[in-house]
Structure formats: C-alpha cells, structure tokens
Amino acid sequence: MSGLSVASGWKCTAGTITVQFDSFPPLVAGYGITRTDTQKDCGDSNNGFGLLFNFNLLGDGVHTMKVFDNGVQFGASTFTVTTLGEPFRTGLSKSVTITDFPAPGQQVTLQWDQAQQNFMIAGKGGGGGGDQDLSSLIGGWEYVYTISSTFHDRYQYTGIEQISGKDVLRGVSLADNSPIAAARVQDIVAGSPLPYTFAAVHPTLIGCDAYFFNKPGPNTVTGIYVLAVGATCSTIAGSLYDMVGMRINPSVSMAPFPQEEGDRYDEALATQSDNEGEMKETIESFLHAWQER
Description:
Elements lengths: L3 E7 L6 E5 L5 E2 L1 E4 L5 H4 L5 E7 L6 E9 L2 E10 L13 E5 L7 E7 L4 E7 L14 E8 L3 E14 L2 E8 L5 E6 H4 L9 E7 L2 E11 L2 E10 L5 E14 L10 H16 L1 H16 L2
Antiparallel strand pairs: 1-5, 2-3, 2-6, 4-5, 6-7, 8-9, 9-10, 11-12, 11-18, 12-13, 13-14, 14-15, 15-16, 16-17, 17-18
C-alpha cells in the first residue's frame, strides 16, 4: 500500500463501523455504500463501508487493520506500506511508460498524482489517454503555461490536410494569424513511447513553440510546453513546462500577419515535407528531453 486509498468491505447489518490501524485511535468509516456483489448474501446491496486514508502516515513496513461494528471486532488484515520518505510529497512531476503491458505490443503510461500520492494510469496503447481523434481539436484553444511568468497562447484549428499520407491539422495563432500545425504523435513517429497523443508546432522568429498533450475531456488538454530551435525546430531549448489548455470561442478578431515576417513562415512551412518532417524532428528531440527529465 502507498498513498491515499480506501479501506473497504461489507457487512450485511451494522451500526457504527470503525477502522483501527495498528494501535492508533479508531476512525469512523462510511456505511451504506452500494455493493451489488453482496445482494445474494445480504438480500440488499447498501451494506458496503469505506474509509479514505493516507497510508503513508503509517510509515514503511508491515501494519495491521482491524474493523469494528459498534466496538466489536469482526475483521482484520495485515498489509505492507512503502512510502517516498514523507507522508505527503509536494512539487513532484513524472510520467513513465510501461511497454508490453497489459499485452505484448501494448503500453500503459503512468502519471504522478499529488492528490493521490501515487502513480495513476494516464493513458494506454500508443500515445496518451483520452480522445485520440485529431479532428476533435478543431476550434479555438488557449494553452496556458508558466515559465517566469504565465503565458496564454491562443490558437484556432481550422481543418485537416493530408501531408505525405499523414493527417496534419492546420490552424493559426489568434495573436498574429501565424500558422500552427498539429498531428497525432504516433502518425508522425510510429511507435514513439511518448505518453502524449498530440503534438503541435508553431513556428516563430526565434524557433518553434511546441506543445505535447493529451485530451482527457472535450474542452481540456494537458501536457507539456517546450521551445524548439534550429532551422527545422529540431533542438529542445531549456526546460519542459507543464501546460493546460481550454477550449475557447475565438471572438476576438485576428491581427494581420506582418508581410515582412511572411517569408520566414513560408520558408518554415515549405521545409521538411511541409511540416511533417519538421514535426518529426521536434518530436524526436522532445522524446530525448522527456526521457532525461
């Protein structure tokens, strides 16, 4: 055991259920939780009990849990706790990918969850979790991340094009109408172990704003922002920053794209098979930086 978890069970009829860990004072558990698996034994299903508890508080080692009904013990178990040295760790961030699980050729991505004090399943298969349909990104988005200050990058994705036989989502920045392109990571770099479903690259005069993310809900994305530099944005510069995105209604009119900067973007979009190669190099560079994180 580790982190926050629920001590649970069932009893057909009960008064006050309390749970005692080792020699600590008993804690009152909730009773009346629906347990459809107990219908045959109890004649009803509202006989479950549960107690949310931070097992890290017990420290590393073997511990005992006893369960009481109105002070009379009716159950007990032993278990082992493993901690990270403290009852509640803050400021940690990490994703890991397990390959060939739960079956050969499949993979599962685990993400550290501070609230649970544990790793949680964040994605499965190729890429990350949530919606993996590229067309689901069509519309307005605001990507928010913090470096020394908080940035709000706003884009409008407009439609999908086929480039070198692969789907690429086109869009523009709502700040200056400059282009952005997005794609599924697995479409650009097949077999990539990155725990992110999508990658988006926005060429700028100093490199590329690059975003790697999953889409856990219809109006939210979560992932990483990085700055990529070089002629084809093939080098990750600096750190990786946590990023969240929210769907927006882009009612603000877009500023005209400066003509003197147009040649730079036209050249960037024309290189490497019109974005596909550029995105591939950015993804591969990000993979190295992510693995070193």
